[in-house]
Amino acid sequence: MAYTAKTLLVAAALAAAPTISSAVSLDFSAGSFDAVTDTLTFSDVAEGTDLVITTIGGSSWDSNNDARNGTVNGDDGRINVATGTMADLRFSFVDSDTGGAMVLTEVEMAFFDLDFAGQEVLTLRSPGSTITRVDTSLDVSTEPGAVTVTGADDINVANVTDSDALSEEQEQATVVFAFDELSSFDLSFDAGGDLGSGRNFLFAGDFEFVGPTTEIPFPPAPIPLPAAGFLLIGGLGALAMARRKKS
After folding, report:
1. CA 58 to CA 107: how far, in whole Å?
2. Per-state percent for the chain, helix, strand, coil, to nearest 5
3. Are strands 146-150 and 139-143 parallel, antiparallel or unpaired?
4. Taking the complete model, does pTM exceed 0.85, yes or no?
5. 74 C-beta neighbours (distance < 10 Å), count
6. Is 166 helix (H, G, I), strand (E, B) or coil?
7. Strands 49-55 and 39-46
8. Tens digit of pLDDT for each residue in 147-189?
9. Please, what is the Cα angle at 175 between 64 and 107, to 5 degrees?
């Protein structure tokens, strides 16, 4: 595999970044939003670490109410996205003093209250795992490079006021994204519906399911190739060798 100079520099920078090596419980009690730069910052989410949420690649983040981006319920985070729009966001963990990358291990972030007739959609575009209740009310689908979680089209659960005390229905509309080791991850927020309103996406970093769960690794494991496929590949390889010998 060939590596570009940029890839090597990024890998070296991450290797040199400070690492919090134990499981991290994230605290979102100190959030502030800069509407000019579309930047949401949570200070001290872990020891010496801030979480900075920004748009990706020059994309836009339209909020129906900028004041709803930040902290809610004391220590949960909240992102507001205008209906009829999508926000492609990068969650980056940085050193509180230097702003440099921080590598965290065993990170989990839960997102709640995904409903509104399938109009609240999350798409994870970074390696990790997706965890839901076995009896989830969410629709989960995978495709190359992404896993998408959609609020079920037949429910509208009560708004979450305490992430530590969810009803069974609220828990069934919750998803957790888990990461073994990372400094950032990419997540898209799709707020369906007509323009003129907004959707609130609540999240927490210390949530545990009460009911049994199922886990979908991402990227998904490769699909095993049937025996016939191996025979076909072997046959094509032998044919190619025969052609080379004749030429």
Report:
1. 27
2. 15, 45, 40
3. antiparallel
4. no
5. 12
6. coil
7. antiparallel
8. 999 987 666 788 888 888 899 999 999 999 999 989 999 999 9
9. 100
